[in-house]
User: What shape does this take?
Amino acid sequence: MKRSDIAAYGVFCGIDVGKTGHYMVVLDHDGDKPLLSGSVAQDEAAIREALTKAGDLGGRMLVTVDQYGAFGSLTVAVAKDMGLDVAHLSPRKFKQVAEIYGEDKTDAKDAFIIADASRSMPRHIELVGERPEIMAEIKVLTSCRDDTVRERTRCYNRLHDLLHRACPALDKVLSKQKLHNGLEICLVERYGGPQGLKRAGKTRVAKWAGSLKYCKTRGPKLAETVFAALSKQTVTLPATTVIEAQAKKVAKRIIELEVEEKELDAELERLSEQMVEVEILRSIPGVGRVFGATIAAEIGDISRFADAHHLASYAGVAPVKKESSTIKKSRKRKGGNRRLKNAFVQSAVIAAFREGSAEETYYKKKIAEGKTHQQACLALARRRVEVVYAMLTNGTYYEPLPVAA
Assistant: This one.
């Protein structure tokens, strides 16, 4: 904010946000003695009452918090509902400002610093607009999408197991990624397994498969392949009837999960268009709308990280050094933001398999050094953090390095 913007406010309310409760200090435009101070419970009624008392002290009020997400989301929502302006002092900038006030640290002092900084150093704070709400929505959607993908993977594994129990030859025809195609999963959802397919007959199955969209040629070919596999098994395995009934249900659930994922992706696309960070991140190879939205939402304000190493530690992709006597080695870091780590690593994997790219060269270099696939991808993800930090800090788009680099 600019100093000229602060002239419009007569009261400055600083809130040190906590998990179960907050501490609030209210200052006027000139005096250093708090007009009001005290603890406030993490409760809507208590927050509303405290802000009402502060607002009654006179003049237009600016409410400043040290975090507008997580523990601070209720406070921000209540203040906005009351028609108050809300500002944010990032942790990194708070640390810079707090050095001026000495080394003592208490909730009361932190709240005083937040209030005083909002009136005397407005360049360090920024108004909280619609951005926090959009980021919160993206976090919810990406979390739901992760659950959907995990459940779908579990269903695929279960379906493979069921098909193998009923007819190993059929499971071989639909092995691995072949079952992930729309035609194959619809075939299982409709007929279940060997008994259902044989009852329908090859001619009827081929006609049905050929009537599906984009399957006029591939449908009949699949029917030929499936019935050729079924002809190799003349016996009926135990519990085949029950297995086929369950296979139909699992296949139907997979189709539903595919629809859910597409709906979530469409919603993420809509929200991503409102965040410039996502557009910047999507210029990086391997980072699409989902990973871009995930990385942007999980990072939040990039200024809260002092450097790229802090961001890498937060994401859980920075190796931990372990020294003992003459032994020195690095081990994988445990913990960190799992969703952010997954986005960095998975996008790195996609980029590593782009033929002729700098990422592929770096990946192969790590493999040549004796690293495993997982270690090489983690190293590439760590390198990617440096790029993301620089891009978000400077607001610049990705510029690929020459392969030799």
In short: The CA atoms of residues 103 and 109 lie 10 Å apart.
